[in-house]
Design brief:
single chain, Alpha-D-Glucose-1,6-Bisphosphate, Chain A, domain 4, 2 domains, seven-stranded antiparallel β-sheet, 7 strands, 31% strand
């Protein structure tokens, strides 16, 4: 048996060890890049620049696909009281297919959730806050997805603005 034949099993083992070490490192490195480049607070630049609604102008999201995302907006709803805004919003949320988990009139909060498709029991929470102010109600909306779950940004923004319009009595 020559030297090459004697070393062949060790070279094969050495190549396999490199693959087992390098492959997980490459995957972790790529995951880190995706998480770090996609994170941070972002605002949406509408392709339709005519959307001057306050809910669209104040819409932001942060996080990443791997870490999860949080979407938010706020808007002032004129000439409405907190009770009517909450009732209209809760009805709209339920009619859109969400499970309304809790409404607290004294705190001005609606908590809802939606089961995630193919999410193995995961839910995505939605919170709506209502604060009575002179001349109307300040509404705040927040929706979160966990890591590995995503929602189209445009669809979330559209839902938020529709929900605020429903609280105004426009829907």
């Amino acid at each position: 048996m020559n030297d090459a034949e004697q070393l062949a099993p060790f070279l094969l083992l050495d190549n396999m060890m490199k693959r087992f070490i390098l492959l997980p490192l490459a995957v972790l490195s790529l995951a880190g890049c995706l998480a770090s480049t996609s994170g941070g607070k972002q605002t949406v630049t509408n392709s339709d620049s005519s959307d001057s609604r306050e809910c669209a102008r104040n819409f932001t999201y942060d996080g990443s696909f791997l870490a999860g995302r949080t979407y938010k907006t706020k808007a002032f709803v004129k000439n409405v009281n907190q009770a009517d805004a909450m009732k209209r919003a809760a009805r709209y949320i339920a009619q859109d297919g969400w499970q309304v988990n809790n409404t607290d009139q004294s705190l001005g909060i609606i908590s809802a959730s939606q089961t995630v498709s193919y999410g193995q029991g995961k839910t995505a929470p939605l919170s709506a806050s209502f604060e009575q102010e002179k001349g109307g109600v300040q509404m705040g909306l927040s929706y979160s997805t966990s890591g590995g779950v995503t929602s189209p940004v445009d669809a979330v923004q559209k839902f938020f603005c529709s929900l605020i319009e429903a609280a105004e009595g426009k829907k």
